[in-house]
Design brief:
The chain has 131 residues and is α+β, with helices and mostly antiparallel strands. It has one domain (7-114). Helices cover 37% and strands 17% of the residues. The chain contains three helices and five strands. The strands form two sheets. The protein has a three-stranded antiparallel β-sheet, with no helix packed on it. A two-stranded antiparallel ribbon has the order 4-5. The N and C termini lie far apart (51 Å).
Length: 131
């Protein structure tokens, strides 16, 4: 059931819930129907080494692009990288979108000359450097 991970032990069922399993590289037990492969989907977070690697990749990419992540994103990604919580879709998607948006903003800021057609006539606009 858990693709892409090594199951160390399947724990006995407790009550009416799903059976849980201990997997290599994750400190707590996870449900047997949990996702262990990327990408996460809404309502189905990713557990295991894939989640930890993706969190590290996102933080490394943001640092390489010199993008400062907010405290909420940084705390959540650090907890995923340590294996304390799974990688949720919302954190993953927002971080990817934010880094991509900042990358585009910096590329646009590098081009000082802009050509626009307004009210039927062409117009040249100069951007101030750095803003």
């Amino acid at each position: 059931m858990l693709a892409g991970v090594e199951i160390l032990e399947v724990l006995p069922a407790k009550g009416r819930g799903r059976r849980r399993a201990l997997i290599a590289g994750w400190p707590t037990s996870i449900p047997m129907n949990a996702r262990t492969q990327l990408p996460p989907v809404p309502g189905r977070p990713v557990y295991g080494l894939a989640a930890r690697g993706e969190a590290r990749r996102l933080m490394r990419e943001a640092k390489g692009e010199q993008v400062n992540l907010g405290w909420y994103s940084q705390i959540n990604l650090c907890k995923v990288a340590r294996g304390e919580r799974p990688l949720s879709y919302s954190v993953w998607k927002r971080t990817c979108d934010y880094v991509a948006r900042k990358r585009v903003e910096r590329e646009v800021a590098q081009r000082p000359l802009q050509f626009q057609i307004r009210a039927g006539r062409p117009q040249l606009l100069w951007r101030k450097p750095g803003g």
